[in-house]
Amino acid sequence: MILWAFLVVITILLITYYKITSKTPDALKNIHTITLFSRIFLTITKQLGHDTLYFRYKQYFEKDGIVKERFRGKWTCMVTDPAIAKDILSKQGAPAFRALPLHLFAETALKMIDILETIDKKPIVIDSFMQRFTLDVLGKVAFGFDFNNLENPNSVYVTAYNEVQNAILDPLALFFQIDNIPILRQHRLKKLTKLNNIFIEIIKEKRKALAAGKSQGDLLEHMLNANENLDNQILSDNELKHNLAVFILAGHKTTATAISTILYLLSIHKNVQEKAREEVLRILGDNLIPSAEQHKSLKYLNMIIHENLRLYPPATFLQHRESAENLKIKDFVIPAGTPIEIFIYGIHHSPKLWTNPEEFLPERFENKNATIENYSWLAFSSGARK
Ligand code: HEM
């Protein structure tokens, strides 16, 4: 009885605290709200995906091009209007990417296929399997380091990395500023320190290898060499570590999700699978590791990849931006400084921008530039990798 009374009092206090601290600014009042209650309900019923969110609030996204929600303690606007996406994204520098060494992907893919063959018709959870593959590839591309996650999913490197991933995606941390609570912050920081120490160790080992004349051509080597060619070091070890961490975190789950959804789509659209197989065999022949030119010639496969990323964009929204000036969106004026998220999933599924948006039709990307230039396809934001 006392416990129940205590819980009721705590709940009332929490709701009152939320009501007082989350007062809606006048300018945002007329924008439709995704309530905290609705978010908690979706979290409890494990419907966290942005597909659920889009279809639940589709009428507002389509009519107004904008909805708002309280996120990490701030009122945040989610936008599905491509004109606004263009306005915001064209004001920023797009991330710069190097051409990735295809052979590292292909070699690890061959290892993955060998492992898949040993599984022999037993069911596997494809997205976690693909995450093991992409972590191995990125480890090699970024540091020349083999996490060997495909063969050993429980190694100390992988466990340290997964703990940080889980802490980032902890639903509590998404909706509340739990890092303001010292004990939780310490607990989360400990996981990060463990991973940071691994990165530092890898940088040390790489320096030793380079001094011994052993080169693998990975990103870390490029960064270290660039540092050494100049009088002043461009990047400190700490910055090197942060850059590599961003690279791995940004590329790992995104790519694993993209491969998983493409396998799903190919498995249910056998005609597309056949056509893609025919193209790959025609262009690659017996050579299992494609050259950059061969990769470019795989036109149909690239259309499939674009359509996959439209239907199931691994990054469903862009990290929030804050406009320096008031921003006009249809009838609303969003005050400067309000967090704004471009809702990629909503843009990719809008019937105003795509004919039969829920259908898998790679042919829509026959002329992909037209689609991409009007900001209705934003799988990689407005960056160069399109
Ligand atoms: C299908 C796979 C991928 C998708 C859909 C994807 C999507 C994106 C998107 C939408 C952004 C912009 C985020 C924002 O502006 O808020 C981004 C940024 C970035 N991506 Fe990817 N990405 C993919 C694969 C990769 C890979 C393989 C790497 C590395 C090898 C990578 C490295 C990065 C980096 C370094 C950034 C910049 C992060 C930052 O500025 O904080 N991504 N990616």
UniProtKB/TrEMBL annotation:
Keywords: Heme, Iron, Metal-binding, Monooxygenase, Oxidoreductase
Keyword Protein transport applies: no
InterPro entries: Cyt_P450, Cyt_P450_E_grp-I, Cyt_P450_sf, Insect_CytP450_Detox
Source domain of life: Eukaryota
SUPFAM superfamilies found in the cross-reference section: Cytochrome P450
GO MF entry, a single one: oxidoreductase activity, acting on paired donors, with incorporation or reduction of molecular oxygen
Cofactor: heme
Assigned protein family: Belongs to the cytochrome P450 family.
Protein name stated in the entry: 4627_t:CDS:1
Phylogenetic placement of the source organism: Eukaryota, Fungi, Fungi incertae sedis, Mucoromycota, Glomeromycotina
